[in-house]
Structures are given as structure tokens and as C-alpha cells.
Amino acid sequence: MAVDPLIELRNVNKYYGELHVLRDIDLTVGKGEVVVVIGPSGSGKSTLCRTINRLETIESGTITLDGRPLPAEGKALARLRAEVGMVFQSFNLFAHKTVLQNVSLAQVKVRRRRQEEADRRSRELLDRVGLLNQAGKYPAQLSGGQQQRVAIARALAMEPKAMLFDEPTSALDPEMINEVLEVMRQLAREGMTMVVVTHEMGFARASANRVVFMADGRIVEDRSPDEFFTHPRSDRAKDFLSKIL
Ligand code: ADP
Ligand code: MG
């Protein structure tokens, strides 16, 4: 099946000083595709995510979203950040704003929605992630799993074309992981284009169209979850899987 590409990286290289962190990265994420990125710590997974919404610049290569190069600055860059939602390991909510305000804020500031319209959409999204009854609380009054679901709702409020998740469940207590993964599984079923860095292999098997395995800044394997987990080709992937499975 040929998929319509949404995110394309071609020959992307990134350095931090002398450190070559992304090496000749070629990656295409089709519309509606869920790509899970795995690999050892330090292999460049977070950097890869951050380059896609231009939290990091690159030294060479091209990145396009919907066929257009990523904008470098100004309003177009702000729009890009809204179009490519990002959810991090740390929830990054505004501590002095309520859950509802957290979800509404960028809708008003970036999307220029009226407050009432933003709040109405926020309530819909909070309902979707199972947190409508927490709308008036402050982040510190919520569990980690609940905070992460607010962060997802906040990103979705921008009506993104794609969502990037960088280890969204790594900071959570085990009993809260599933409530966040369930929201992500639901998003995947609804056809959201997603790039997900995670160690949750159950999620990768059930929801990913492809698994990308990274090591030392390179994409070493890029295959279906079934092929990857049953027949990893590279020694690096075999070694990695033997440690986590
Ligand atoms: P991963 O997410 O796979 O653990 P990262 O993308 O965070 O890997 O990091 C890749 C490499 O880049 C690591 O060696 C890390 O130490 C280094 N690195 C990450 N961020 C920075 C930074 N801001 N400055 C310098 N080096 C960095
Ligand atoms: Mg990382």
C-alpha cells in the first residue's frame, strides 16, 4: 500500500559540536501511520523528534511536512509547532493554570479562538481523555497519568497534523502507564499520524505500522513490528531486544 507522505526526512545530519547525533537519516511517515522509534539511550531518538518540529536545527538534509520544508522562524514556525504536537516525558503543564486553562491557552494565543470556543473544545478533549471532571483542578492535584493525558489534550487542541511522543510513559508509575497508552491507542485507531519513542513493546506490537530501530544516530532497521520483533536483522537490534524483552 502506497501511503501519502506527511513527514519526510532526507539525508538529515545533526551535530552537537563534535558529536554527530543524527547520521544520514531517511525517514518517511505516511498520513495516518504510527511509527514507533526504539533504540538504546543516547541513540538520537529525542533529537530526531525535536528536529521534526524544529526545536533543533539540522546541519544538512531536508525535512518536509506535507511536502513543504519546515519554516525557519516567525509565524510559520509557530504554526508548525501547532501542526506537529509534541508530548514529552515530563508533562510541562503550566502549574499556575487550571487543567481547562492549560488546554485552552494556546487555542486563544496561537489559533486565535475566542475564549468560549476554546473552552468548549477543551471540555470536549478533556472528555475524550477521561478528565472532564478534573477541568477546574491544578496540575499538582492530578496524578502523573492524568497530567500526561492533559498534555495530550492540550496538543490535540491545536488540531495537529501529526503527534510526536517522546517517551510519554517513562516517568509514570506502572499503574498509570496504561491509561496514557489507551489514549494513544485510541488516537492511532482514529488515524492520527504519530511518531512515538517508547519502550512499551506491547504498544509497538499492537499499534505501530512500523518500528524504526536507532543506534548511534542511525536508523538501523525500519520494518513492520511483526518482522522486527520476530526476526531482527542487525546484531544491535538483537542485542537491544534481548535486554528489554
Ligand atoms: P535518546 O533520546 O535516544 O536517548 P538523544 O537524542 O537525547 O538520545 O541524544 C543523542 C546524543 O546527543 C546523546 O549522546 C546525548 O548525550 C547528546 N545530546 C542530546 N542533547 C544534547 C544537547 N543539547 N547538547 C549536547 N549533546 C546533546
Ligand atoms: Mg530520549
TrEMBL record:
All residue ranges annotated as the ABC transporter domain in the record: 7-241
InterPro entries: AAA+_ATPase, ABC_ATPase_HisP-typ, ABC_transporter-like_ATP-bd, ABC_transporter-like_CS, MetN_ABC_transporter-like, P-loop_NTPase
Predominant location: membrane
Compartments reported by the entry: Cell membrane
Keyword presence, Chloroplast: no
MF terms in GO: ATP binding
SMART domains: AAA (SM00382)
Membrane topology: Peripheral membrane protein
UniProt KW keywords: Amino-acid transport, ATP-binding, Cell membrane, Membrane, Nucleotide-binding, Transport
Listed name of the protein: Amino acid ABC transporter ATP-binding protein
